[in-house]
Amino acid sequence: MGRRAGPRRASAHDGELGAAVARAQQGDETAFATAYRLVHPGLLGYLRGLVGDAAETVAAEAWQEIARDLGRFRGDGAGFRGWTAAIARRRALATPRHPEAGQREAVSGPEPDGPEPGGPESAERALELIAGLPRDQAEAVLLRVVVGLDGPAAARVLGKRPGAVRSSAHQGLRRLAARLDARGNGEDRSGTRDKRRR
Fold first, then answer.
1. What is the pLDDT of residues 153-189, one digit of tens each?
2. How many CB atoms lie within 10 A of CB 195?
3. According to the model, what pLDDT value does residue 186 have?
4. Which of 17, 44, 58, 137 could disulfide-pair with 77, CB 3.0 to 4.6 Å?
């Protein structure tokens, strides 16, 4: 994925990431470690949404491929995030735990009370909620929000039109907001009132 014309949603670290990737392509191992540090958390979150507990294994395989093919990459920091997401997705689709293989179950039943916002547990809970969305919506939300790709970059990863990805992300975020609103009002997903007092 090379450079392209037009606006792109910039991550706060895209400049640093682009510079690190360029240095890593020249053999700078410290720069590769910087690129890894900037990309890996979002990539791992994306994979957790796709393959659950197999995310670490799939991420390790993806990073082996990324390191092997780094010299072929052409683009900036945002392009690198998209390129790594495409590699990780290909790896995830090949794993038996991918939802297309029927192994992952959506979150079901009443949602337990979550921890306070902002901690690692809340991030895990957010990924569980996203995983409960229809697959196209979950992937669009993960790529747009967790990985930080813009619509066109997420569309390239998914092999879809940008408008379709934006629509899926919007629908997924609306569903998540409705679920969180229901939880805030003391309802579970079945619509029954929570009898506990807060």
1. 999 999 999 999 999 999 999 999 888 887 776 654 4
2. 6
3. 60
4. 17
How far apart (Å, rounded) are the C-alpha atoms in residues 8 and 79? 10
DSSP class of residue 146?
I
pLDDT in tens, 50-81: 898 899 999 999 999 999 999 999 999 999 99
Q: Which amino acid is at 122?
A: S
- Please identify which residue in the block is written with the tokens 């470690």: 33
* Sole residue written with tokens 């929570």: 194
Indicate the pLDDT class of residue 11, thresholds 50, 70 and 90.
low
H helical segments located in the chain: 14-25, 29-51, 55-69, 77-94, 120-131, 135-141, 151-158, 162-184
- 193, 187 Cβ separation under 8 angstroms: yes
Q: Which residues, including other chains, have CB under 8 Å from residue 29's CB and lie 6 or more apart?
A: none
Q: Where are the beta strands (DSSP E) in the chain?
A: none
CA atoms within 13 A on the CB side of 91: 24
Residue found under tokens 């506990």: 196
Residue 158 in contact with residue 169, Cβ under 8 Å?
no
The size of the chain, in residues, is 198
Contact (Cβ atoms closer than 8 angstroms) between residue 75 and residue 2: yes
pLDDT given for residue 184 in this prediction: 72
Please provide the DSSP assignment of 23-68 as one string: HHHTT-HHHHHHHHHHHHHHHHHHHHHHHGGGHHHHHHHHHHHHHH
